[in-house]
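Hi F.,

I've been meaning to write this up properly since the lab meeting, where we talked about keeping a consistent format for the predictions we share between groups. The idea is simple: the sequence comes first, exactly as it goes in, then the structure tokens exactly as they come out, then a line or two of notes. No screenshots and no reformatting. I'm using this chain as the first example so we have something concrete to point to.
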Amino acid sequence: MSTQTRNYGFTKDNENDFYDVNTVNNNLDKIDTEIKRIEEKFDESEQTDTKVDNHIEQDDGHVRYIGDAVGQNAKVITTDKLFLEGSPVKPKVGAAFRFKNATHNTGAVTLQIDSPKYGKTSAYNLYNSRGAALKPSDVQGQLFYTVVFTGSAFQLQGEGGGYYTGDTIKVNDLINRHYVDVSQRMAINGGVNFSSLNHEVAIVNGVEYAFSYCTTTSDSHVFCFVASTGQLVWKKNVKYEYRNSRIVVYEGKLYLTIADYNNVLGYGGGIGIEVMDALTGTTLKASPISVSGYNVSNAPDLCLVDINGTKEIMVLAVNYGYYAWLFRFNLDGKLLATSPVLSSINHTNDITPSQIQFASPYVYLASGRVIHGFVANGFSTAVKYTPPENAGYDYFILSIAANNIGGLSFLDYVGYLHVLDVNLFLKTPRIAVNGNKTSGLAIKGDLLGYATPTDIRTYRLAPNGLSVTFLAEFTYPTNVDTTLPSKSIGLSENVVVPPRAYTQEYPAVFAKTLKIQR
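Output, unedited:
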């Protein structure tokens, strides 16, 4: 008797049954139908796999989540959800994806894709949205990020403008002005009016700082600020006077001239030079200045000089009998040499020199009426500038600065810039800049700035130094004039520190850029 197979119901004859063609044909029909069904099912599955592959390989427009990035700065994502090509393998240019970051970074980051299907990519740099290396904590742990492959790096996307901690923003991009006051406008205790006329901006250990001081005969304050933020780094208070000299900052040291009228330092009312640590304000050395047989009563200015390749500090000292001297100090504040009385400058019927600047090989001394140049290493008179006869206040010298052509420039009383070469020859007719009683001339490379009684102005010097282009100005009550001129404002490409006469506040710091703090 015939039976049927368990799975497909084919007829199975017994060995004693006669061969039946119809039974065999029926079984073959069943086999044909089942094989066809299996083939169709296989084709459908294969097409589904192909569609999935094509979606991954061809649809680069989808920003898919591909997995977790593990590692702190050398991050790896293990995934088959991102199509890789080439040898060595890498994503297509423009391919974008999302990932979850496991651990915050502590520095620059690389990202590598490890695909069991395609292979492992190189470790490519992961940059921020502006193409810069990441800074610590730019990618936080357990947060999701989107990146795009540029062909040579991964770049973060969608970060709201791309500003990061430590980045800077131009003030003019935020508000309609070039500078903004970032200083801590605090009152100086005592209710006394101070003079805060001379400032400096300098880089120490890679950071830009603003240095200022306020002074009276028996109470003086020195300040150091982070230039970009106005944050106070240190403040120093002494009971003697800083003598309205420039501030010199070089190789981590700060130099000022002093007057010890109350004998706090034991100078018996004399003068000297003080050397400080620029980052702490600690006094490293204070050296008295004296000349036998003379009452050297004032040290109105100092500057950094280069003598045969060696940097030194040169101090101008005078007395009230119209005599002047130059003192050479090494960078540690040790006196190296003293000039004879500089009688050849013939200031007897003029005004005692009050300013000093250096442009190799000369040290220049300036009063309101004349400039003399001395050979720095020998104190001998070499060159001289005098204004036109009967020039009046039109040529009254209020401030001087070494210029960008290797010579000297000065601002006069009525707002003109005079450009002199190293030998003090006038290079061009005086250049009109705005404002009366202009002083505080500072030149840093091709950047020029100065103060008037009511505002601060900056210009860009031409490469030949013979013309200027206006950059910016802002209103500030400096109150400087012919009786209280500034020798130098604090100036850099990003910061201005304005002078101010008759103040009871900390010095102001104006920044052209703002630094992102957090």
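Notes:
The longest strand covers residues 298-307.
Residues 153 and 475 are 47 Å apart (CA to CA).

If this format works for you, I'll send the rest the same way.

G.
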